[in-house]
Design brief:
Layout (H helix, E strand, L loop, with lengths): L7 E7 L3 H5 L9 H4 L4 E3 L2 E5 L2 E7 L2 H10 L7 E3 L8 E2 L5 E3 L3 E4 L3 H18 L8 E9 L6 E9 L3 H9 L13
Parallel strand pairs: 2-5, 4-6, 7-9, 8-9
Antiparallel strand pairs: 1-10, 2-8, 3-4, 9-10
Length: 183
């Protein structure tokens, strides 16, 4: 079995929210007015490597940010929790597409998921791979504006299956809100 055929999906509660991110040490406070308009926000992760220990973004982050910003609308407002001076990138160079962690409001999660799936499809083509030959690592935090609690979702598996698996995983998480669409 090819390594990328394994799937890992975890859904767990989290206290992370847009407001808690605004208070993080990495957050550019001088950009709060602009960034706080976002309902999808790319955030750095704390990486610990041999000679590297700080907040950084995975290597595909700039491309992903440009891609999601091209899809922006009045309803879907993506941004990044960084300024140009503090944008650190960690390059791992593998057959894994690591998507930068992002937090998204539940109301726009379906849009964000579709944009993510389209980005992954483009990455598959760019790398001249089949859908099951490229692995994706994805961390998403979904905030629930209706008070049911926020969820953190981790997916690692074939890039071509990410949309379907994430749809299934999120279908029930906010079901108490009266719908089955993850809203």
């Amino acid at each position: 079995m090819h390594e990328s055929n394994k799937e890992i999906i975890r859904v767990e509660d989290t206290v992370m929210s847009f407001e808690s991110i605004y208070n993080e040490t990495y957050f550019p406070k001088e950009l709060l007015n602009e960034i706080s308009k976002a309902n999808m926000l790319i955030i750095p992760e704390y990486f610990i490597r041999e000679n590297f220990s700080e907040y950084a973004f995975p290597e595909t982050t700039r491309e992903f940010l440009e891609y999601v910003k091209e899809q922006a609308s009045d309803d879907f407002v993506p941004d990044i929790a960084a300024d140009d001076d503090c944008f650190n990138k960690l390059e791992l160079h593998s057959a894994v597409v690591t998507i930068a962690t992002f937090i998204v409001k539940s109301v726009v999660f379906p849009i964000a998921l579709k944009v993510l799936a389209n980005f992954l499809t483009d990455e598959i083509r760019k790398h001249h791979r089949k859908e099951d030959e490229l692995t994706a690592k994805i961390n998403i935090i979904i905030t629930n504006d209706k008070g049911n609690g926020n969820k953190k979702i981790y997916y690692e598996g074939p890039a071509g299956s990410a949309e379907e698996v994430l749809k299934l995983a999120t279908q029930e998480i906010f079901k108490d809100n009266g719908d089955n669409n993850g809203n």
